[in-house]
Amino acid sequence: MLQLMRDGRPRTRAELIQLTGLARSTVGARVDSLLAAGLLKPAGESRSTGGRPPVRFAFNPTAAVVIGADLGATHATVGLTDLDGTVISDRTVELDIASGPVPVLDRVVDLGRELLKEAKRSRADLAGVGIGLPGPVEHSTGRPASPPIMPGWDGYDVPAHVSAGLGGPVLVDNDVNIMALGEHATVHPHVDHLVFVKVATGIGAGIISGGQLHRGAQGAAGDLGHVAAPHGDGVLCRCGNVGCLEAVASGPAIVGRLERAGVDVHDTRALVDLVRGGNPEAIAEMRAAGREIGAVLASTVSLLNPQVIVVGGLLIQCAESLLAGIREVVYGRSLPLATEQLQIVAARTGGHAGVIGAATMVIQHVLSAEEVERQLANLAS
Ligand SMILES: [Zn+2]
């Protein structure tokens, strides 16, 4: 019933009985306990058909708050959201992930406390904390698993550290899954099959299948960057393999090729500026990278049949040339049935996708039927 109410539409008890097919007494008891928990609130009266007008109820997104933290290689954004995933306030700071878990997570805890204080919410109002990390994470335990750019983090108990400082359940996942959740929740909530591709220093994908994030057996699903690219022959990847997509189509890979061709460009940001400034070599390389990504994505389309492919990450600031290359190959290689309705679009949530996604991960957990059941049982006892 709560899942139904989360669309925000006010409904009367009679409407809920009709919609759920549950008995009058069951709906009555449920509404009462959800009201007591603060998850529903009275929302005015419905028009009367004679007699006392029936009261309407609506989901109350301000019943609790959530902290979402999006940690990158050099920056962190920590935000406070309500139970709809709407950002109330946020803070972006420079934070070097390589300085290790203790100073980084202490800072996240401090920022979280500041945001709670500013919003005049207490730790008791906090439903949970969601964290996105720039490396592989075993989602079930919240521990990073041999993350390449995060020395000292391997196997670290991130949830224990953060819940000691802030409380609440603490859920952790990699940044690409978090961005996929954020983009799905805010821009494509009615799309059940979506693939989010991040193209930046690395390349990765977050897969939404049947409306749920698909993490795979060990949380390693969506590792697109280390699939073999069609023109990857002989190019060494930082993973130790040869010919990976990341080694030919990531920001640093494109920058390297341009530098060898004599173009003055040192990093991915400078590359973005060159493409936006109309540099023909940079545009051509960006489009070629798009085609490599498209070739790997064409297999993904054949396997998963998504409705939408969302492309995000730093390089999407050159959306036109990158998307042109991706579309060229995906539409050319995949079967018409799979591409008939397929949209390939740029991410729209921008800088907030990580925070919203991290919060969404927590909200989906705390508002799941089992969790709500448990909270109501605790409240009743
Ligand atoms: Zn690789």
UniProtKB/TrEMBL annotation:
InterPro entries: ATPase_NBD, ROK, ROK_cs, WH-like_DNA-bd_sf, WH_DNA-bd_sf. SUPFAM superfamilies: Actin-like ATPase domain, Winged helix' DNA-binding domain. Belongs to the ROK (NagC/XylR) family. This is ROK family transcriptional regulator. It comes from Knoellia flava TL1. The lineage of its organism: Bacteria, Bacillati, Actinomycetota, Actinomycetes, Micrococcales.
